[in-house]
Amino acid sequence: MTIDFHTHPVLIREFAEKYPNYVRVAREVFNIGNNFQPLETFFLQMDVAGIEKAVLLPIACARARQDAVSSNEQVAELCGMSGRFIGFASVDPMMPGAPKELESAITSLGLKGLKLDAALQDFDLNDPRVFGIYEVAAALEIPVLVHTGMSWAPGTPLEQGQPLLLEKAIRRFSNLHFVLAHWGWPWVWDAAALALKYPNVFLDTSCLYYDGPKEFIQFVFSKQIPTTLIERSLRNQVVFGSNYPRVEIKNMVRALKSLSLTEGCLEKIFSTNAERLLGVRQ
Amino acid sequence: MIIKLERVRVQSRRAEEAINITPKVDDIVEKSGVKNGVVNVMTCHTSSGLLVTEGIPCLEEDILTHFSRLLPEDEDYHHRRYLDFDGRMGFNAESHLKSILGGIQCTFPIENGKVVRGSRQTIYFMEYDGPLERVYLVQVLGE
Q1: How do residues B78-99 score in pLDDT, each as one tens digit?
Q2: Residue in A closest to B14 by C-alpha
Q3: Which domain does A173 fall in, by range?
Q4: What ranges do the domains of chain B cover?
Q5: pTM of the model
Q6: Phi, psi for residue A255 in degrees, rounded to 5
Q7: How many other CB atoms sit within 10 Å of the CB of residue A132?
Q8: For residue A99, what is the domain's CATH number?
Q9: Above 0.95 for ipTM, yes or no?
Q10: Of the candidates B11, B13, B15, which has its C-beta nearest A250's C-beta?
């Protein structure tokens, strides 16, 4: 089962027509100017890219940005509309009710993981309250996808995306799977080193910050980081992520497949590793 | 003088696709009430197009194949950079250039309430960066 581990449901027209703040959030908080598209386009984008399922990521940033970038309920609603979606939850660790909210999102709404973005949500990754959320996630046995690296969202400080800020949590919660989004770009070696050192660290491939997808991916994963690092050492800890709709899924698939990775390694990146994280494969 | 403007949504289903919209244009003209005049058809997007050619699958394929040969994905395009006004990367220069190459609009005369065109002429909405829901305009002018 091919899985895109990093998508944001921010441009769905049915939701733009249904939820009053949805358009403002897309334009001003998430910062994307593309046209809203019917849900059908999302599936067609997956189809042309050869992707069967997509992880939907909300961001609980209402305290910092007035509104969430998709709520847990909206993600659950989308998952109810199609079995092709795998919904993650997001909670604000600074809010007193966050641990219970996370538990409820997983047990009641049926969401499958947790997404955090310290820069957009405006919290310190090493705040003890964040560790309280990790405790709940570990007990629920769900993966935690954390934004690392640069964010295009306005008003987000770059320094809060440094992968090494997560090391303390990664060490303390060795039974919790952390997915470092965007491979921590520009700190790609920091992110890679964390994955090399800690088996509970995974990296997603959704990094694209200049040039075209193929040029960027080839530069990062063959010039900056040798492709052999993925092929030989990290093949069990990398998951495919596109960051759709900031980039079309097909373009990121094509870019990743242009690397000189073996079929076996690509199978792990596009399918097996994500399935293991989501508990559908041992 | 009658002037009618219709916005038509079309869902492309592939990355690149030629979609025959001739029946839709005919239908809009026939329902417009215009007996004699012109109809103009235009895409609203800069990475899609409108063109007129013979309506056969081999030509549809040739157009897309040869546009891609002339404007390959892996060329060195300045458009490949972060577009701050869009919050995303501009990596579809070739789609924009195909739109320019193939054109974005067409015009036909209307006579006795019907579109006048050559027997082989077919109107295509051209998707160069799909799949996406797109919009094209059909404006009917006349009396």
Answers
A1: 998 888 888 888 889 999 999 9
A2: A48
A3: 3-277
A4: 2-142
A5: 0.94
A6: -65, -45
A7: 14
A8: 3.20.20.140
A9: no
A10: B15
